[in-house]
Amino acid sequence: MIEVDCLISGGRILVMDEKETLIPRGTIAIKGENIVAVGKKEEIENLYTSREILSVEDSLVMPGLVNCHTHAPMTYFRGLADDLELMDWLNNYIFPAEAAFVNREFSYMGSLLACAEMIKSGTTTFCDMYIFEDEVAKAAKKAGMRCRIGEVLFDFPSPNVKTPAEGLNYTEMLIGKWAHDPLVSIVVEPHSLYTCSESLLKEAKKLADRYSIPLAMHYLETKSEREQLIKDKGRNTPTSYLQDIDYLSERFIAFHCVWMEDSDIQMFADYGSKIVHNPESNMKLASGAAPVPKMLTSGVTVALGTDGCASNNNLDMFQEMDTAAKLHKVVHHDPTVMDARTVVRMATCDGAKALCLDNTVGALTPGMKADIIIINLNRPHLTPLYNEYSHIVYAVNGSDVDTVLINGKVIMKNRTLLTIDENDIIEMVKETSQKIRKSLKIT
Amino acid sequence: MIEVDCLISGGRILVMDEKETLIPRGTIAIKGENIVAVGKKEEIENLYTSREILSVEDSLVMPGLVNCHTHAPMTYFRGLADDLELMDWLNNYIFPAEAAFVNREFSYMGSLLACAEMIKSGTTTFCDMYIFEDEVAKAAKKAGMRCRIGEVLFDFPSPNVKTPAEGLNYTEMLIGKWAHDPLVSIVVEPHSLYTCSESLLKEAKKLADRYSIPLAMHYLETKSEREQLIKDKGRNTPTSYLQDIDYLSERFIAFHCVWMEDSDIQMFADYGSKIVHNPESNMKLASGAAPVPKMLTSGVTVALGTDGCASNNNLDMFQEMDTAAKLHKVVHHDPTVMDARTVVRMATCDGAKALCLDNTVGALTPGMKADIIIINLNRPHLTPLYNEYSHIVYAVNGSDVDTVLINGKVIMKNRTLLTIDENDIIEMVKETSQKIRKSLKIT
Predict the structure, then answer these.
(1) Cα A441 from Cα B232, distance rounded (Å)
(2) How many CB atoms lie within 10 A of CB A357?
(3) Residue of A106, A277, A386 to mutate, interface with B, max B Cβ within 10 Å
(4) Cβ atoms of B295 and B260 closer than 8 Å
(5) What is the pTM of this model?
């Protein structure tokens, strides 16, 4: 018998490998950070033994979800201002609140709250763009979450950096500081084409290339953004501008991509660039419905993200999956598009692929890091069970996640967070939110 | 001091009255089935005393949600067959499963499961259409839920009734049997214009009129339904046919209404007829997006429903609210439509109004029946709190409901159901679902 550190025993295992293996009663063996074996319960437990056994009969065991686009500290602004025109929302609420309140502590505490929420709803990896991202990384590290983070880069000063050059330096500092971390990795994140000069965009690209790390930005979120870019860049499509500045590659990740036409999609497919779909945010801000079915049939890797809490207003990837599946059915008048399997892939293995982490997480196969969530199926709204993928997309919500492992470590057990104290975090965020409320004169 | 049966003390109370009163720290006094007083904590507790006090600091207290359209026993078919063309879904899965499995016990157990799910996600009243509705009523009664139920009426035989006449007789039996029940009331429910002969439709109308109860049916769910009706009925709009057969009145409730044009909406407004919107089902089956903003500006009462579990796949009204708000924003390219307040009204007071129960439930005012839900706000994904309506629509999910009262009685406390044993129900439904799985050769 081989001694391992943990056995997850007896659950229905959704492996999310190429073959879409489903093991009705299986066991996973974990040694250190890694999955060492996955298979039928008897077969694995005849070979492996462990002092720690999580018995998970009546549970669904699957890869932790990958939230490919969020702004973690913005949990502070959850529900601050809703149902407003974009410019009213930004100019009268979000920007003033950010100018007045964003500092190191804000980014750290807001991210801790985001991590608490994400872990409790089954997300184990997130990709983040905000200000003071070193604090986001520290919070994720404290919570035990995996993340790809990057400081937002644009032409104007932020509460953290005064110039684009400082932003690039800060990013390079992050790259060095977190280079060998098992959980945190860095992404270079220019905010968007419309907020970054060409020189900033090119420097960002150079930095990403120098360290062979991904480059990510908001892209074609709104119709007016597309129209303005076509005008400003003097091209038929903004994507040919991306091509000109050498952005299109397998390490390029574009958030939103709502207003993409067939030619844009084809270029993303040709270069292997990645797209992150944020349906709930796009719906709530009335940005539009991204042409995701076309992206998928064109062979583009499409991942899923919640966007920040100011425009969603939660970080629940299960709800995001449900919305992703349903939105495109109604938009395309076709109930067969975005089937449940496809959507689960977007939130797991394809999410990992988008972040260039597909050799690390996204599937429960030997050699992968043990990022695993366990869903209690013994609930009225999850009864009966005919199809696991359907359940995950259309019936499960984040609160059904019972236990979470990240990098081989149990981070939440029976809905209790083991790495951070959620009540402390809630109290601290509430305190600051009172000040935000007063400052913005919200009654 | 006046002795009452229960005080709900210290929560943030969303009254849902005409003034949209919000009491930041309030108390509700309940005597028997009724709310007798609502106001600031100190004021109420200086006047009223009770042996039972529910202390609900850090909680949101609001009217129980009203799910205005479902098919409760169809919980049995949750996730049975998804992502399929409508006719494939109906002919190869739903109809064969119904023909083989629907009987009294099926309707009773499926409804018990539905009640468990609904109570646990904050629904206190539901409107149901299915087969063997007496069993649905018994299940609701056992669970302690309020409901408006009606046997589905159409031209062909059902597992319960062989002819339309038998269906009408069964409905009249229900009306008599449940006439004085505090929780159960009846609605006459012809299935739709395309499944009912004119004579059945007219008899149904007579029956509803004889007892002054509502008349409800599916209406304009799909585009092809509209086109076929225009052809068959030889009119510009199906709604003028409804007018001809005298259906339009304040007691007429139409489910779905996806394919309504302005003239249909205006007729509903003129007659005070009600509409029930089911966005998640309409999206999942790719039926379309009902013109709800137009309905609302025209003054039609629009309520919310989940539809059955085979086409959603849950009965969570919080998710339905979230989807309702977001769907219309993206469809209308306008983030200001379907604001959170409007959507919360649809799920509470306007739902009650649609079911002609607005003198009974839907708001927390003195004289109303005490149908109340208590939401624990002390959670990461509900922190911070700026706006209660936004939270309910965009952040809360069904699992955040802690405690539920219906008709003055505590039905769920700290997420434990007090009227029914959910584990027993889950086990029984699982057993039958194994047979359904085998019979339909689902692997």
Answers:
(1) 58
(2) 20
(3) A386
(4) yes
(5) 0.98
Beta bridge partners of B150: B129
CATH 3.30.390.10 for the B2-64+369-417 domain, yes or no: no
- Fold match between A2-63+366-417 and A65-353? no
User: Cβ A399–B397 below 8 Å, yes or no?
Assistant: yes
Interface test with A, best of B75, B85, B117, B330 (most A CBs within 10 A): B330
Contact B312 A394 (CB under 8 A): yes
B437 contacts A386? CB cut-off 8 A: yes
What CATH architecture is B69-353? Answer: Alpha-Beta Barrel (3.20)
Distance CA A301, CA A321 (A): 16
Q: Which of A293, A74, A396, A281 is nearest to B325 (CA)?
A: A281
Task: Looking at the structure, give the CATH architecture of the domain made up of residues A65-353.
Answer: Alpha-Beta Barrel (3.20)
**Do the Cβ atoms of B383 and A316 come within 8 Å?**
no
What single letter denotes the amino acid at residue A309?
C
- Give the span between the Cα atoms of A40 and A252, in whole angstroms: 38
Q: Residue A31 burial by CB count (10 A; 0-12/13-18/19+): exposed, middle or buried?
A: middle
Of A117, A285, A327, nearest to B283 by CB-CB distance is: A327
Residue from the list B81, B284, B433 with its beta carbon closest to the beta carbon of A326: B284
DSSP state letters, A10-41: EEEEE--STT--EEEEEEEEEETTEEEEEEEH
Contacts of A365 (CB under 8 A, 6+ apart): A15, A17, A35, A38
- Considering only CB atoms, which chain B residues are within 8 Å of A282? 330
* Residue B78 DSSP class: T
Q: What is the ipTM of this complex?
A: 0.97
Q: Architecture of A2-63+366-417 per CATH? A: Roll (2.30)
A245-250 contacts at long range (C-beta below 8 A, 24 or more positions apart): A245/A198, A245/A201, A245/A202, A245/A205, A246/A202, A246/A205, A247/A201, A247/A205, A247/A215, A247/A273, A248/A273, A249/A215, A249/A273, A250/A274, A250/A356
Q: Token pair of B59, please?
A: 């909680």
Q: What are the per-10-residue average pLDDT scores of chain B (443 residues)? A: 98 97 98 98 98 96 98 96 89 91 97 98 98 98 98 97 98 98 98 97 98 98 95 91 97 98 98 98 97 98 97 96 98 97 98 98 98 97 97 97 98 98 97 92 76
Q: Which of A21, A75, A83 to mutate to test the interface with B (most CBs of B within 10 A)?
A: A83
User: Tokens for A390?
Assistant: 């359907």
**Omega before A366 cis (within 30°)?**
no
User: Which residues, 6 or more positions from A48, have their beta carbon under 8 angstroms from its beta carbon?
Assistant: A1, A2, A3, A4, A7, A27, A29, A36, A37
Section A70-89 average pLDDT: 93
Q: Which residues of chain B neighbour A325 with C-beta distances below 8 Å? A: 83, 284
Q: How far apart are CA A336 and CA B285, in angstroms?
A: 9
Integer Cα distance of A21 and A10 in angstroms: 16
Q: How many CB atoms lie within 10 A of CB B367?
A: 10
pLDDT of A235: 87
Helices (H), A261-411: 262-271, 279-284, 292-297, 317-331, 340-347, 349-354, 388-390
Query: Domain-by-domain residue ranges, chain B?
Result: 2-64+369-417, 69-353
- CB atoms A381 and B326 under 8 Å: no
From A60's Cα to the closest Cα of chain B, the distance in A is 15
Q: B383 and A429 in contact by Cβ < 8 A?
A: yes
Residue B272 vs residues A375, B139, B247, B253, B269: alpha-carbon distances, Å: 45, 32, 11, 10, 5
Report residue A50 CA to chain centroid gap.
32
User: Cβ contacts (< 8 Å) between A57 and chain B: which residues?
Assistant: none
In what helix (H) or strand (E) does residue B410 lie, and over which residues does it extend? strand B409-413
